[in-house]
Design goal:
Largest sheet: 5 strands, parallel
CATH class: Alpha Beta
Number of helices: 5
Strand order of the largest sheet: 3-2-4-5-6
Radius of gyration: 16 Å
Helix content: 25-40%
Strand content: 15-25%
Order of helices and strands: EHEHEHEHEEEHE
């Protein structure tokens, strides 16, 4: 690591380790669902959206089938907007109805659990899935709600003042997971 952009950043997963982790997560999802026909990946903005796209490609490579994926923005269902600040919402984009489907919520990092709680509330506005699963690349601890991921790339205990960055080629021109 060199340059000022890398100052203060510690590599948690290299590009190769990230690729292996994504392959493992995709395999775990396929082992858990009965059929990819009813599977829908919903990325939570911002990095979860791109992570869901990458994961959908992995699942398609493994299963040979197209995987439905979209975006679920839980911003207006949050109970902590005064703490985290308001951001422009990203349009929820569902490729199909969620009724009786297996929905995998995809996010880059789980921290307090409040984003996931809001996403669970938001999804109810679109129907009643048969099952909702949670996939995250990094669990950094500090949960405020009893929410745990079903699939997790890496558990990285952090201080509350630290942050985790998922970098993806399509967005950042590099890949990896970093602690700041």
């Amino acid at each position: 690591m060199g340059g000022s952009a890398d100052a203060g950043r510690i590599e948690i997963l290299s590009a190769q380790e990230l690729a292996r982790t994504l392959a493992r997560l995709a395999s775990q999802v396929l082992e858990t669902v009965d059929s990819t026909d009813d599977l829908v990946l919903l990325g939570i903005p911002t990095r979860g959206v791109q992570l869901a796209r990458v994961l959908a490609r992995q699942l398609e490579d493994l299963s040979g089938r197209t995987i439905a994926q979209g975006t679920l923005d839980p911003t207006f269902h949050r109970d902590d907007l005064e703490r985290v600040g308001m951001r422009f919402g990203q349009a929820t984009d569902l490729p199909m109805g969620v009724e009786e489907r297996v929905v995998v919520l995809v996010d880059d990092v789980i921290f307090t659990g409040r984003t996931v709680r809001a996403a669970l509330e938001a999804i109810q506005a679109w129907g009643r899935p048969r099952r909702v699963l949670l996939l995250v690349m990094v669990d950094r601890g500090h949960r405020e709600l009893p929410i745990q991921p079903d699939f997790c790339g890496r558990v990285v205990p952090t201080r509350r003042t630290e942050t985790i960055e998922l970098r993806l080629m399509d967005l950042d021109g590099e890949e990896g997971v970093y602690l700041r």
